[in-house]
Amino acid sequence: MVAKAKKVAYFAHLEEALNSYARACIVDFDFVGSKQVSDIRVALRGKAELIHGKNTMIRKCIRDMVAREEGPREDWESIVNVMRGNLGFIFTNGDINEVIEVLEEYVKPAAAKAGVIAPASCTIPKGPTGLDPAQTSFFQALNIATKINKGSIEIINDCEVIKVGNKVGTSEAALLTKLGVKPFEYGLRLVYIYEGGIFSPDVLKITDADLAAKFAEGVGFVAALSLGVGILTEASLSSVILGGFKNVCALALEADFIEFPQVEKIKEFVDDPEAWCAKYGGGGGGGGGGGG
């Protein structure tokens, strides 16, 4: 009965959060201790709310919520599809970057444990280790060249003990523990962004400049297509006007009809390019060469 009551309370809490908050970070809790999670929860107080539970319960709760809705809820259904692994939510109505700053602050170094997939590589630098000669077996197990210097083991060359993506072995874990090295860092890792649907965290890296550049690129493609098929559009209008004006200038020069300023400048350039450059400041590259 107690377990059932807790389950009902959890469902109600998650449902309230999904209805109350506009967005959320979906984070991975792997290798994050309860004390670290508690510290993050305290740091997020007033900014966001952290909710963590079994994925089966989360999926069941969301499916029940979707079933009670009159229309489709693709935003909620998208969460069900990604809830795999040790994931949880950090809900907020504020700036999601503030939440990410807290997550980045609460990242702690951790020792290498045997059987874990290494999230980063680890290289032991050459030099004294401070270990007595009786500990040489730890180095020999990993084929690390050593020598005895002043009563302690000294590593001759830098040695990569762990490679990112590989499973940590018992020998590597034991050696790093002996050396007091904590090669990894663990915290709540941002996996997805939820805001009316599921998105990659990479969307947060998109700036206004990126959007403007993509928009300009798209307008350029539309203009090129419009010019290619001979259909006038707003995107191609400036190019059409410019092309028409060039034709007008060419015709005016051919007919010696110098009656507007643009053609006058072109005429001046054709008649005496050096004087035109001196008058209007063109030919800067040539002037530099002459000065040399």
SSE diagram, text form:
Elements: H1 2-20, E1 23-28, H2 34-43, E2 49-52, H3 55-68, H4 74-82, E3 87-92, H5 96-105, E4 108-110, E5 122-124, E6 127-128, H6 136-140, E7 146-149, E8 152-155, E9 159-162, H7 170-179, E10 184-186, E11 189-194, E12 198-199, H8 208-229, H9 234-254, H10 261-271, H11 273-280, H12 284-291
Antiparallel strand pairs: 1-3, 1-11, 2-3, 4-10, 5-9, 6-8, 7-8, 11-12
Helix pairs in contact: 1-3, 3-4, 8-9, 9-10, 10-11
What does this structure look like?
This protein is 50% helix and 16% strand. With 292 residues, the chain is of the alpha+beta class. A hairpin with a 2-residue loop joins strand 7 and strand 8 (152-155). Helix 3 runs antiparallel to helix 4, helix 8 packs across helix 9 (234-254) and helix 9 packs across helix 10 (261-271). Mean pLDDT is 86; it is low at 285-292.
